[in-house]
UniProtKB/TrEMBL annotation:
The keyword Ligase does not apply. The lineage of its organism: Bacteria, Pseudomonadati, Pseudomonadota, Betaproteobacteria, Burkholderiales. PANTHER family: BIFUNCTIONAL LYCOPENE CYCLASE/PHYTOENE SYNTHASE (PTHR31480). GO terms for molecular function: geranylgeranyl diphosphate synthase activity; squalene synthase [NAD(P)H] activity. It comes from the Bacteria. Its EC number is 2.5.1.21. Coiled coil: none annotated. InterPro entries: HSQ_synthase_HpnC (IPR017827), Isoprenoid_synthase_dom_sf (IPR008949), Squ/phyt_synthse (IPR002060), Trans_IPPS_bact-type (IPR044843), Trans_IPPS_HH (IPR033904). Signal peptide: none annotated. Keywords: Transferase. This is Squalene synthase HpnC.
Length: 304
């Protein structure tokens, strides 16, 4: 496949951060959009509709097989997702995208389904970060691959940014995740505050009970953890030149903006879900422009 592929429009989803925006170099928009379609479609298989967990897992296994075919620069004639794997096969062939990173994304989606089905939780932060390593970090590494940046420091900073974005999404979304049976709070963090999974049943559908104060305090603690990770990775914006660096600045500032909004809510994201919208654009642009090589001091850590 040598021609630039046609890219079908993605399904309508709320997104915190821009995807293949006008800041991306034009020649990289097709492969970035192909990666996005691949991940977005897999996420829909894992989350949307009313299929059983076993049916979702079977669907993702079939999706994984088509990824393997795309990595061989093939799209089976009976492909169920030609609009995904046609552009992706082209992108893999043209840009040598690592198949393993794309497969890691599917592994994370499958883990989500299995943990929800089995009602299992994450033991500690290390286990949750291993999930982020597969659910979020591959996207950053794929983008760095496209930009020709592959040194260990840059990859580590990218991982920190991507893991922070994934964690921010968790702490933004407990009002969405908990009713669906998805529990991302590490058990060790819960135990330090005397919380168990039983305390979070008040967030199930039809419950009118207010969230326990210790659960709100937990959001403050883990939100600070996400801010630490974002600060650790933020210097990467100065490694990427031109429009690419500006794109990453806006991504970083978008994540930090969500954390600011979580704090403005008194850390009670159980009752309200903060989002970033068009009205936030001037603030994001201003903060992105003001980013310096030395990060500003962190806000004081909440009690642990």
């Amino acid at each position: 496949m040598s021609a630039t592929p046609h890219l079908a429009a993605p399904p309508a989803h709320y997104e915190n951060f821009p995807v293949a925006s006008w800041l991306c170099p034009p020649h990289l928009r097709p492969p970035i959009a192909a990666i996005y379609h691949f991940a977005r479609t897999a996420d829909d298989i894992a989350d949307e509709g009313d299929a059983s967990p076993d049916a979702r897992l079977a669907e993702l296994r079939a999706y994984r097989e088509e990824l393997a075919a795309a990595a061989r620069n093939e799209v089976p004639p009976d492909s169920r997702w030609p609009h995904v794997f046609g552009p992706l096969a082209w992108a893999i062939a043209q840009h040598r995208l690592p198949e393993a990173l794309l497969a890691d994304l599917l592994s994370a989606f499958m883990q989500d389904i299995e943990k929800t089905r089995d009602r299992s939780t994450y033991a500690d932060r290390a286990e949750l970060l291993d999930y982020c390593r597969r659910s979020a970090n591959p996207v950053g590494r794929l983008l760095l691959h496209l930009y020709g940046v592959n040194d260990e420091e840059a990859l580590s900073q990218s991982d920190a940014i991507c893991s922070a974005l994934q964690l921010i999404n968790f702490w933004q979304d407990p009002s969405v995740d908990l009713p669906r049976g998805r529990f991302y709070f590490p058990r060790t963090d819960c135990a330090r505050r005397g919380l168990t999974s039983e305390h979070f049943k008040v967030f199930e559908p039809l419950s009118s009970a207010p969230p326990p104060q210790e659960a709100i305090n937990l959001i403050a603690v883990v939100a600070y953890w996400a801010r630490e990770l974002m600060t650790e990775g933020a210097p990467l914006v100065h490694r990427l030149p031109g429009r690419v660096g500006w794109e990453l600045r806006l991504v970083v500032q978008g994540g930090l903006r969500i954390l600011d909004k979580i704090e403005d809510l008194g850390f009670d994201t159980f009752s309200q879900r903060p989002t970033v919208g068009k009205a936030d654009a001037p603030v994001l642009l201003w903060k992105a422009w003001r980013m310096r090589r030395q990060s500003r001091p962190m806000k004081a850590a909440p009690p642990r």
